[in-house]
């Protein structure tokens, strides 16, 4: 158990930008040897409660995250992720929006067209996923799905290139313009802008 906590502290320290034990020690106002003791691979010395709480403050996380009991930084994020199914990155991004953006986002997701768009987008992603599984890398000119004749190519890395994304969306969706901002940054697919 002590070794697991030691590994967790080191992993979190590094992932939060403290590349050296010294920089972490400085942020916590402890000696370098103290941090080295926490991160020793054999017989690590566990931090006392005061140091654990200081780490939580510096790393902006809950104690359970620090000792590996939850994978999200805080219980609040864990709860929101559990209820919504969103990733920690998505929840953090939303929580960092300013008040005006949050109000607009709230109106956006409550709009009736949002559900229609999401239904269509899910169908679209399933079609692309199916295409990437059905065709070998290097395939070009295949059809994305039954009734949708937009040609696709499957790249060597498995990503799918659609030559006319707007044609596909107009066939499966309601309002093509509504999708534009949501799909152009999708890192799973290579998409071209509307012609």
Provide a concise account of the structure shown.
The chain is an alpha+beta fold. Helices cover 58% and strands 10% of the residues.
For the sheet with most strands, the description reads: 4 strands, mixed
Q: Write out the strand line-up for the largest beta sheet, numbering strands in chain order.
A: 1-2-3-4
Strand runs, count:
4
Straight-line N-to-C gap: 58 Å
Instruction: Provide the number of structural domains.
Output: 2
Indicate the proportion of strand residues: 5-15%
Q: In percent, how helical is the residue content?
A: 55-70%
Radius of gyration: 23 Å
Q: What is the approximate shape?
A: elongated
State the order of secondary-structure elements, H for helix, E for strand: HHHHHHHHHEEEHHE
Question: Which secondary-structure class do the elements indicate?
Answer: alpha+beta
Instruction: Supply the number of helical segments.
Output: 11
Low-confidence stretches: 178-195
Mean pLDDT over the residues: 76
